[in-house]
Write a structure and sequence with these properties.
The chain has helices at residues 5-26, 32-71, 83-87, 109-120, 128-144, 150-167, 172-186, 197-200; strands at 77-80, 95-98, 101-107. It is mainly alpha-helical and 215 residues long. The structure holds zinc ion.
């Protein structure tokens, strides 16, 4: 399990709630009103912090499953950026993979947030950010797979976007639409490093799920 500051806070709040329950029982006949108020406040804080922690763990687990699926690398994982590191992260990158620690796809907090909202949605009308979040996760998975040429990673990722979207619960039509939308709307705006003439040479790519051949 990924342990962050929030995990520790949630554990602390849980301990505090249990402590307040004991105190409430002990002072039931004397100051139950005050003890109850404190317990309610602690429970509210625990529920709030806990919901953020559960969200983080859940979306990271889904992203991990996707990275392992599309990269084909056993034990590969995704690492969703937490709140505190995001505060001091001045980079413009949406995700990255360390060359010497290749089995982890690091994803920017905003990407994981968009992935979360898409996963929880009915997937009928994804936002631009949600479309990109699915693709970026697949793109980083291509680095996990060992492809560090950005143009090739981008092309391979586009060829797997539909498969990835279906893997995460989209229908076949929704998955195909998502992949096509990235290809038509986002790919042309990518910087030169990410674009390949071969990939876009003959009009729309064959975005058939599972087709992984770089043209
Ligand atoms: Zn890349």
């Amino acid at each position: 399990m990924d342990v962050g500051v929030l995990t520790v806070v949630v554990a602390g709040l849980l301990a505090l709630v249990l402590r307040r329950v004991v105190i409430l029982r002990r002072h039931w006949n004397t100051s139950r009103g005050f003890a109850t108020s404190l317990l309610v406040i602690c429970i509210a804080l625990l529920v709030t912090a806990g919901s953020f922690e559960v969200k983080h763990q859940w979306v990271q687990a889904r992203a991990t499953a996707l990275v392992a699926h599309v990269s084909g690398v056993r034990g590969a994982s995704a690492d969703c950026q937490r709140f505190t590191p995001e505060l001091v992260d001045l980079s413009a990158t949406s995700g990255f993979v360390f060359f010497d620690s290749q089995d982890v796809a690091h994803l920017r907090r905003a990407v994981c947030n968009d992935l979360f909202t898409w996963l929880r949605s009915n997937k009928k009308a994804p936002t631009d950010g949600e479309v990109r979040a699915v693709h970026i996760t697949v793109h980083e998975a291509m680095h996990v797979r060992g492809e560090f040429d950005e143009a090739k990673a981008e092309c391979f990722a586009m060829q797997r976007d539909a498969d990835a979207a279906q893997f995460l619960g989209a229908t076949r039509a929704q998955a195909a639409a998502l992949a096509q939308r990235y290809y038509r709307e986002d790919y042309p705006r990518m910087s030169a490093d990410y674009v390949s003439g071969e990939c876009a040479a003959d009009g729309p790519l064959d975005l058939t799920p599972g087709d992984g051949q770089f043209p």
